[in-house]
């Protein structure tokens, strides 16, 4: 699949790049995508949720009533879960939600996500660019020229470019990240991928090791 390379003014440069079929042209594996997205979202969870059980609630341990003859259950003390203000039975406790996925599974998930974007024609290839001074206005102009300003866009850069990141960080529907940090969730969450030429080379190298 060939795509024309654009400059930051949205004009064709006359060059074309061929998307690697082994990365952008595979048969997507939906189950692998599910696993990778599930792992990414699980890793974002803090896992600090906590509720108090009956032994942790502050309250008297005095026996509320006699053992028999009350006509009801033996409720014990005021911290009983059956009473208002008592402890919670089997409540949430702090835990780690992270789990492991094999490297080959994660690579296949990234290839599947990129292949979906290629099928949807949601990939824009732009020549490598930088911004001299951090300005959101300049970045918005680039997005308008590329006709992605009204879409949720993910920009992939080959290396850290601080001014580009600073110019884009205030835009709600825009994210800038390194091609080496690419993951299936970010790709699927975006409406369109804006990939620089050198980022394409990085993606090919990383996913075809």
Walk me through the structure.
- This protein is an alpha/beta fold and 209 residues long.
- It folds into two domains: 2-45 and 99-207, Ribosomal Protein L4, Chain: A, CATH 3.40.1370; 51-91, no CATH class.
- Helices cover 33% and strands 15% of the residues.
- The protein is built from seven helices and six strands.
- It has helices at residues 21-24, 30-44, 103-119, 136-145, 162-168, 184-189, 197-207; strands spanning 2-6, 12-18, 123-126, 153-157, 174-178, 192-196.
- Strands 2-1-3-6-4-5 form a six-stranded mixed β-sheet.
- It is elongated, with a radius of gyration of 27 Å.
- The two termini are 21 Å apart.
- The model has no long low-confidence stretch (mean pLDDT 93).
Brief overview, please?
With 209 residues, the protein is α/β, with parallel strands linked by helices.
Q: Which value, in Å, is the CA radius of gyration?
A: 27 Å
Tally of separate helices: 7
CATH H-level superfamily of the largest domain? Ribosomal protein L4/L1
Strand-pairing-aware structural class: alpha/beta
How much helicity do the residues have? 25-40%
Pfam families: Ribosomal_L4
Function: Forms part of the polypeptide exit tunnel.
Region (Disordered): 44-78
Protein name: Large ribosomal subunit protein uL4
Topology:
Blueprint: E1 2-6, E2 12-18, H1 21-24, H2 30-44, H3 103-119, E3 123-126, H4 136-145, E4 153-157, H5 162-168, E5 174-178, H6 184-189, E6 192-196, H7 197-207
Parallel strand pairs: 1-3, 3-6, 4-5, 4-6
Antiparallel strand pairs: 1-2
Helix pairs in contact: 2-3, 4-5
